[in-house]
Amino acid sequence: MSLNAFITKEAVESDEDGPLSGKTVAVKDNISTKGVRTTCGSAMLEEYVPPYDATVVELLKDAGATIVGKANMDEFGMGTTTETSAFGPTKNPVDESRVPGGSSGGSAAAVAAGEADLALGSDTGGSIRCPAAFCGVVGIKPTYGLVSRYGLVAYANSLEQIGPIAPTVEEAAGLLDVIAGPDERDGTTHDEGADSDYAAAATGDVEGLTIGVPTELVEGADEGVEEAFWAALDELEAQGAEYKEVSMPSVEKAVAAYYVIAMSEASSNLARFDGVRYGKSGGYEGNWNDAFARAREDGFGPEVKRRILLGTYALSAGYHDKYYAKAQDARAWVKQDFDAAFEDVDVLASPTMPVPPFKLGESLDDPLQMYLADANTVPVNLANLPAISVPAGETEGLPVGLQLIGKKFDEETIIRAASAVEN
Amino acid sequence: MSDTPVDADEVRHVAELARVDLDEDEVEEFTTQFADILEYFDALDEVPEVDREDELVNVMRPDEVRDGLTQEEALSNAEETEDGYFKGPRVS
């Protein structure tokens, strides 16, 4: 019966009176909670109990929220299905034979099933928007630097942001209001968002809004997904928005660039897990390099090993220029394409995921196929932009998400546009 | 075909650099998968040279002492400690 949405179910009550009083929030298990174990979905950290709270968790408590548990996730955020979790997959509450998406699958499933009112996820290449789309709820990936990453266990620092998942656009925006703003403990945060009122932007008014549709992000999508996507755009047009097609050739290289950068950063970030200061050591004897290598063999699952090794390879002598440097070029190219597109339009729209939710077990054997499913979400992380996924109909009974991408720190406009999709 | 063929020895070498032991089944599986994935990454060869306009500035703060974790808190997740220190495996 259980969806396995939570790795740890433990209530953390707040005595504060604030905008989230009476609300229950699921927190993704890579966000540090003082005194409550934080596993990142990994056997390596099965018994890790953080001695401090992430900034976003402090903000939740200050806002009066009750944390109901730590949500299941792909191991260290590495996956698109929540199946790489060492604690077993989460099921999609809409259809329990299917995945909830990932990597924040537990967060989205908990909200969709009513096991939490709201949730926090993290999004490195689509990990909030994908599960939001697959579970039929709303997810926001904020502009890079809007939300503090202090206390988020790092996977790929230059790409990831913490963000909200909720049943409605207004509630997601309200949770973003709570967590957004500068933090002296995260030097990449900005002053934007300090006194935000994103919830007030959910007016449902799109009169005069110009929407661009990058053709590269629609072509090749599943037929049912594409139909739902165009129906949603027609609906927005009927409400007074206009849309036009735009071309962004760089996004064809975004998946390759994203994975090279994310894996490279992962190979460096995950070097810290040697079982000495935290994590499983396995108690191996002998040369310390051998002991660490055996601890890491035991503690990491296959997808994490794959990414650490490929990242190590991409950064190694002789390959750095071919992979990592070219990926950085591609990242700059993607940013330029977005800048050019936003000269003519207010927001960009695409299907969040090109496919409906996978069957459980369907995609585990072919990692490259799984990476390709991220084609529409990763360009946003490469360009540091904000994006929202909002439910936009169904295909064969399965949810379809519409992704709306905004200019840097222009969360208001994507929230406004997404709220019109709910009309 | 990729112009950067990966063989089992190369997978073992990278695993050693990354300090991750692999069993033989994993080596075999990764060798096949890495060939596919790296071939896909070859698409980056077609990326044009781009002027990277990074608008990065250093974010500095005064180097002042502030509260951090206590020694006890810092050691609380270590499997082995001795006299208030982390205890790791032998160096050699």
UniProtKB/TrEMBL annotation, chain A:
Gene3D superfamilies: Amidase signature (AS) domain (3.90.1300.10). GO terms for biological process: translation. Its EC number is 6.3.5.7. The keyword Cell inner membrane does not apply. Allows the formation of correctly charged Gln-tRNA(Gln) through the transamidation of misacylated Glu-tRNA(Gln) in organisms which lack glutaminyl-tRNA synthetase. The reaction takes place in the presence of glutamine and ATP through an activated gamma-phospho-Glu-tRNA(Gln). The active site is at K28, S103, S127. HAMAP family: GatA. Belongs to the amidase family. GatA subfamily. It is an enzyme of class 6 (ligase). PROSITE patterns: AMIDASES. It comes from Haloferax marinum. This is Glutamyl-tRNA(Gln) amidotransferase subunit A. GO terms for molecular function: ATP binding; glutaminyl-tRNA synthase (glutamine-hydrolyzing) activity; transferase activity. SUPFAM superfamilies: Amidase signature (AS) enzymes. It catalyses: L-glutamyl-tRNA(Gln) + L-glutamine + ATP + H2O = L-glutaminyl-tRNA(Gln) + L-glutamate + ADP + phosphate + H(+). Residues 12-414 form the Amidase domain. Heterotrimer of A, B and C subunits.
Automatic annotation (TrEMBL), chain B:
GO terms for biological process: glutaminyl-tRNAGln biosynthesis via transamidation; regulation of translational fidelity; translation. SUPFAM superfamilies: Glu-tRNAGln amidotransferase C subunit. Residues 67-92 are annotated as: Disordered. It catalyses: L-glutamyl-tRNA(Gln) + L-glutamine + ATP + H2O = L-glutaminyl-tRNA(Gln) + L-glutamate + ADP + phosphate + H(+); L-aspartyl-tRNA(Asn) + L-glutamine + ATP + H2O = L-asparaginyl-tRNA(Asn) + L-glutamate + ADP + phosphate + 2 H(+). InterPro entries: Asp/Glu-ADT_sf_sub_c, GatC. It is an enzyme of class 6 (ligase). Keywords: ATP-binding, Ligase, Nucleotide-binding, Protein biosynthesis, Transferase. Pfam families: GatC. Its EC number is 6.3.5.-. GO terms for molecular function: ATP binding; glutaminyl-tRNA synthase (glutamine-hydrolyzing) activity; transferase activity. Belongs to the GatC family. Heterotrimer of A, B and C subunits. Allows the formation of correctly charged Asn-tRNA(Asn) or Gln-tRNA(Gln) through the transamidation of misacylated Asp-tRNA(Asn) or Glu-tRNA(Gln) in organisms which lack either or both of asparaginyl-tRNA or glutaminyl-tRNA synthetases. The reaction takes place in the presence of glutamine and ATP through an activated phospho-Asp-tRNA(Asn) or phospho-Glu-tRNA(Gln). This is Aspartyl/glutamyl-tRNA(Asn/Gln) amidotransferase subunit C.
